[in-house]
Structures are given as C-alpha cells and as structure tokens.
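Hi there,

I know you've been waiting on this one. I reran it after we fixed the sequence typo, so this is the corrected version. Both the input and the resulting structure follow.
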Amino acid sequence: MFERPESGERAVLVHVNFPDAAGQEDLHEFTELVHSAGALAVATITGTRTRPEPRLFVGQGKATEILAAVEQHKADVVIFNHSLSPSQERNLERLLSCRVLARTGLILDIFAQRARSFEGKLQVELAQLRHLSTRLVRGWTHLERQKGGIGLRGPGETQLESDRRMLNARIKVINRRLEKVERQRDQGRRARQRAEVPTVSLVGYTNAGKSTLFNALSGADAYAADQLFATLDPTLRRVEITGVGPVVLADTVGFIRHLPHDLVAAFRATLEETRQADLLLHVVDAQDEEKHAHIEQVNAVLAEIGADEIPQLRVYNKIDLGDQEAHAETGEDGRVSRVWVSAVTGAGLDLLGEALREHFHGDQVRGWLQVRADAGGIRSSLYNIGQVISEQVDENGAWWLEVRMAQRNIDKLVRESHGACKFHLADSIGMVTGTAQVS
C-alpha cells in the first residue's frame, strides 16, 4: 500500500534536549529501545533547542549534520527520540532520502516483533493502523504531479480516499475480533470471581524483571530476557501459595515513559486483567537510578486505565546485582508495603509470600452467614470454594453457615444477594439444640 524507503539495521539516532519542557526523554532508554528493535546505532546526534522547529523539528544546521551522518555511515533509517508530526516526518524523509522513524513508530515496531498470540497481533495491528491513518499522504507523494486541472481530482487524491476506506474497514474488522476475544476473556474472569480466586497482576516499568519473578513464583517458563518489552502477550497461571490457596498470577506488558496512546487504547482489553486484579505487584528495578521516575510513570499509566485504586505491594527486584539484603518494610498502616527480593536467586521470595498471606488473610473474619432456604445457590458456591466450616438449620429452614472469609468478600456477597443472606460475627451467635439463633 505504501511506497516508502525500506527499513534497515543501520540507524542514526537523534536526541534533542528541551530544557524548559516537562517530561524529557532519556537517551539511555532510547538507545535500549533501538537495540531491542534489532537496529544497529551507527551514530548519535544530540542537540539543544528551546522548542521544536515546525518544518524539520530540528534547525537547518542540525538537519545538515544528520544528513552528513547518514551519508557517511550509509544509514538506512534515522530515528528520533521524540514525537514527530506527519509533515515533519515527510519533510525529513525528503531531505535525508531515507526512512525517518519517531519514538512512537519505534515502539510500535518493537511490539510488532514481540506479538506472538492471536490477540496480541490484532492489538498491535490496530495500533499501527491508527498511527498510519494520519500519515497516509506521504505514501503517495509520487502522484502529486499527476493532479488534474482546475476543478478536477487527480489520481493521488483518489488513491488516498481508497486507502482510507481500506484502513477504516480493516480497523472495524479488528475491533470486532478483539471484542470477541474480550468476551471470552470476560467469561474466564467472571468464573474466577465466582470461585473467589484472587488475581495478582504483575505490573512495572519494562525490563524490571516481571517475567523472571513470574516464573519464580509460578514455576512457569514464560520468556524473559534483559531487554525492553521482552514480554508482550499477557500470561496467566493458577498457582497455590501456602496459606493463601489458589491465586491467579498475571504477567503483563511493561510500561514505559510516554507510552503511545494508540497502544494504550489497543491494549485496553489486555490491561483489563490489571484493572480487575485484587492486588498489584509493582515490580521495580532496585538498581535503576531512574526508579523513582519510573514508579511515577507506571502509576500514571495505571491511572489512565483506571487501576490506580487497586492495592499495591511494591517489589524491589534485582537485589543480587547490588549490595541490598532481602527485607520487608511496613507502611503507615503497619502492613507490609515494600519487599526487596531477587527473582534470580530466590532471596526474599519467602518474605513476599508472607506479605501475600497478610494481604489476603489479614482482614479475614469468622462468623455466620444466614442464607434463606430459597438461596441454595449461595450455599453451593460457598461449599465449592471451601469456605464453610460448619452448618446448622433453624426452624424456618434457613441455613446458618459458619465461614471464615475476607471481610471485602463477605460484604460483596451480602450486597449481591439482594437480601438472601445476612452476616453475623461469630461472637454474636448462640447455638441452641442444633439451631443457630441470634443472641
């Protein structure tokens, strides 16, 4: 569909510092992104400006310097560590005679390489199509000289309209397929909720060690590598944690500074696993000098997808690469809020297990659920998940089930029963001749 220069492996990198701008990009992270994409950085051009130049993003002198680097190193692509407008990309490609890629396009290319599952490939394609929809015009600049006379439409404009229709049709097809996948995912999620199986979602900045920690906790063999966005497709495993019981662990895609909005929108269904989790394990690279800024970036993305209210347990990983010891720190509420571990050596994983037990069982209460005789489904569900300690029946045929559950699950059960059950603390119940009565 597009006539554009072929992408290659030899890349010239461009990083411009804007002192007065908020949210500066990181040059080291940019280099790691390029490496993760499989490109070879042959030159890095840096500079400082007060604001981007409207036509070329950089000044004419810096553009000439970039052109000289392209010709000297025979580069195939120039990659900017910034967002470029479609016109800026088009002007730079015309000047440099090679492909120009912005930061957003670079991240999209990495995601396209990493996608393995059917859903992941659909999500990446959707993000790419949305990104390309604003950049169609440069694919047909060779037709500009073929435009007709006054009042006539030339073949260039006709082709653009045709491409837009093709893109919009493909986007609709992908959205329908993703909706079907999302419905299937919702069915599994609702089944876990009915069974009261909690979900623990691993989140964090890319390359913080989430997949390695996921494998250490679950015994899985999810792909893990020392590179950005090594994991793209979400992985779920049901694991047994001593003192907690069955838990679903979810390994999700890593976040990054200024994650493209097209990607956030395309992966919203996948990130729903994070939004619906009972607990977030926020994995942080303990050796990263920018870890505090990365924590803020992750929290910003969590707020964007509506997951900022979910309880977090911060896990500082990779202590084996420094001089830290495995330990746990408590918050203002007296409960563990930070754990220092090494997913590679296993140091501190026992402390993480204790923190999980405290979270899921620290607020448990023991008492009696009074269930109406016509609400046998509630009684059956409680037995299926093993929450019933004992059972009595009163003179009205109602069940009194002795249970030990998290207070939040009890409140949810009573709320959704619409009056079919009530909860009483254990010390407020008296047992008389096999009948439970409120004392």
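Quick highlight: Residues 102 and 265 are 19 Å apart (CA to CA).

Best,
R. S.
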